[in-house]
Amino acid sequence: MHELGIVKHVIKTLHEVADENNVRRIGSVTLEVGEVSGVVLDQLVDCWNYFREKDDLVKGAPLFVERVPAVTYCTACEKEYGTVAHGKTCPHCGSTETYLLRGNEFSIKQIEAEVNEGS
Amino acid sequence: MIKVIELKRTVTDSNDRDAETLRRELRDRDIFLINLMSAPGSGKTTLLSRTITDLMGRAKIGVMEADIASDVDAIKIRSLGAESIQVHTDGMCHMDAGMTRDGLAGLGDQLQIVFLENIGNLICPAEFDTGAHKNVMILSVPEGDDKPLKYPLMFQKCDALIITKTDATPYFDFDLALATERALALNPAIKVFPVSAKTGEGMPAWEGWLLDEWEKQKHA
């Protein structure tokens, strides 16, 4: 299961961020997930809810997800179109000389954190 | 005090850094690591067995077998006289750099070429850098020539594509030219090697590429 591994990586990264920023506890985590990143959101949240209880840094912290719509650019007619509806073939001119502009991101956008005094 | 910290860090960020470190360390130790990926049943172990036998005496080869369970593959490889270690991922669908490092620690220190036989899966292993110097994937003739369309990321990430079981071509509707064209459309730099590990056809081209890339790393 892919999402299980992803959550482990997210939590590992959060620990690094916590060390760098003197964070005691994390209150919430916001992810940015592209429409064609291949991540199943329901499973991601289930895995998160399971793992957060095993880790004092993120215990009880809700996971928020912002979806980024996938957009493809056509180099032949220089127009953009929705990737999910049309795939690699441009609906304007029929060319397949296209590339993904956005929609495959998967990043930790921000966290709400309780920071130790004096920092 | 509560504050909001903006991160904008990709989820695979920490793994990417671990992978970069591992890649550098292995190069310093003169170990050439190949991450071999494919669907289950594509013939990874058969291809490796043939490659090990063919290159016996030219390179000291080791294999790290990653599976969710069992050690049948590791036993098969060991019977050929190569070193092998079985890694279990405890249900995880891919190997990451940390797991690869742990697995390598269990192999001998005198190896020159190490294959990581990743979990049989065309999706997840493509997303996690293992620290390998080259990524190689297998597509077998029975799987069909449409796989580049269905699993584009895997084809984009790999340096070489080995098309296995070409001896079975008469029994399947597999169009080699079309499969190659589809792979090159996703990744113009990918090297394509049609082989039959059973008859040996095409094996010298793949093995030649492997040895060339190994040479290049030694002089890098």
Fraction of residues in H or I helices of chain B: 25-40%
Q: Quick one: how many beta strands of chain A?
A: 6
Could you say which structural class the secondary elements and strand pairing of chain A correspond to? Answer: alpha+beta
Largest interface, with Cβ-Cβ < 8 Å?
A-B, 29 and 26 residues
* Count of domain modules of chain B: 1
As a whole number of angstroms, the C-alpha radius of gyration of chain B is 18 Å
Which overall shape of chain A is indicated by the principal axes computed on the Cα atoms? elongated
What proportion of the residues of chain A is helical, as a percent range? Answer: 25-40%
**What ranges of chain B have pLDDT less than 50 throughout 5 or more consecutive residues?**
none
Q: CATH-wise, what's the superfamily of chain B?
A: P-loop containing nucleotide triphosphate hydrolases
Main sheet of chain B?
A: 7 strands, parallel
The arrangement of helices and strands of chain B along the chain is: EHEHEHEHEEHHEHEH
The CATH architecture of the domain at 2-69 and 103-115 in chain A: 2-Layer Sandwich
Number of helical stretches of at least 4 residues of chain A: 3
Sheet-strand content of chain B, in percent, reads 15-25%
Mean pLDDT rating of chain A: 91
* Assembly form of the protein: heterodimer
Describe this structure in words.
The complex is a heterodimer of chains A (119) and B (220). Chain A contains 3 helices and 6 strands, in the order αβαβββαββ. In chain A, helix 1 crosses helix 2 (41-51). The termini of chain A are far apart. Chain A is an alpha+beta fold. Chain A has a domain at 2-69 and 103-115: hypothetical protein PF0899 fold (2-Layer Sandwich). Chain B is built from 8 helices and 8 strands, in the order βαβαβαβαββααβαβα. A 7-stranded parallel β-sheet of chain B has the order 4-3-5-2-6-7-8, sandwiched between helices. Strand 6 of chain A pairs antiparallel with strand 1 of chain B.
